[in-house]
DNA sequence: TACCCATTAGTTTGGTTTGGCCTAACTATA
DNA sequence: TATAGTTAGGCCAAACCAAACTAATGGGTA
């Protein structure tokens, strides 16, 4: 590997390590270090689809309704979600995320935010602008 | 959030997305998209400790020996690891990773490498050097 | 030297818990 | 009667365990 790439690898490896530390911190602050990959995916699905019902979430995730009931019961126990009955139709129940649930659904974004804060503290404005300019060319 | 941080967030979010795509690609190239978080942690432990035995791995991961036997049997089925008897002491068996196993243990690093390659292709040498210089100040 | 026995390494057996999935049957509302 | 969600009961895989087992080693002693 050329030296330039090697150096780039090292600095990014360090950045990713910082982000991962932020990520772990967020999960353990919420006491939810043992969330599974699946559970996070469900939380994201709920977060993305506003006022989602059990039937709708079953459709979205391609699972049966009992599976959704079970999953939501788990989330309620974890204080990540709660039920809200529709005022118009007594059969319908909306699934909402709690503050904690939203935090978990967006844990990666939140960790990135924390990392960015650290970055901004370590750099001056000119450096940040330069960084943005260069990295824009990659995406 | 200040505009500067917002922009920084966007460019890094995009970079992380690229890295995650590389990550997924690596797992599916190996046909191991369903590896669990635990399994990856075990693979890393094996990769880090050279010529590790069952007893030693049980110590390192703080699990019983039957748990290790079970886990290694799974890895052998997945073609991630194999057993090698000690030539000196017939009771001792070393755990080794296959090429695939090493790839999985270092999937994150490999994904980062692929991302860096994409980056280097998109930037010129001066930009890369500048990037390294700025990011060094963060770590 | 040869045998026996305690020790060590790993495996097998049989068990638990948790997550994640299902169908079929149920309840309540529309 | 149709729809929304729940309950009951079941399945399988992952991840753990203790206890009992097998095989190899390495003394110690007859």
The value of Rg of chain A in angstroms is: 20 Å
Major sheet details of chain A: 3 strands, antiparallel
CATH architecture of chain A: Orthogonal Bundle
How many individual helices of chain A? 7
Q: Indicate the CATH class of chain A.
A: Mainly Alpha
Strand order of the largest sheet of chain A: 1-3-2
Query: What portion of residues of chain A is helical?
Result: 55-70%
pLDDT < 50 runs, ≥5 residues of chain A? none
Mean pLDDT figure of chain A: 96
Pair of chains with the largest interface and how many residues each contributes: A-B, 41 and 41 residues
Topology:
The structure is a homodimer of 139-residue chains.
Chain A: H1 3-29, H2 37-48, E1 52-53, H3 54-61, H4 65-77, E2 81-85, E3 93-97, H5 99-105, H6 107-122, H7 125-136
Helix pairs in contact in A: 1-6, 2-5, 3-4
Chain A binds a DNA duplex (30 and 30 nucleotides) through α4.
């Amino acid at each position: 590997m050329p030296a330039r790439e090697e150096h780039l690898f090292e600095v990014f490896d360090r950045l990713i390590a910082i982000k991962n530390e932020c990520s772990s911190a967020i999960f353990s602050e919420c006491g939810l270090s043992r969330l599974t990959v699946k559970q996070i995916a469900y939380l994201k699905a709920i977060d993305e689809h506003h006022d989602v019902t059990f039937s709708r979430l079953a459709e979205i995730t391609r699972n049966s309704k009992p599976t959704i009931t079970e999953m939501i019961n788990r989330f309620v126990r974890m204080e990540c979600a709660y039920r809200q009955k529709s005022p118009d139709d007594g059969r319908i129940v909306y699934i909402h995320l709690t503050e904690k649930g939203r935090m978990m659904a967006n844990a990666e974004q939140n960790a990135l935010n924390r990392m960015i804060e650290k970055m901004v503290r370590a750099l001056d404005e000119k450096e940040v602008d330069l960084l943005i300019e260069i990295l824009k060319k990659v995406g």
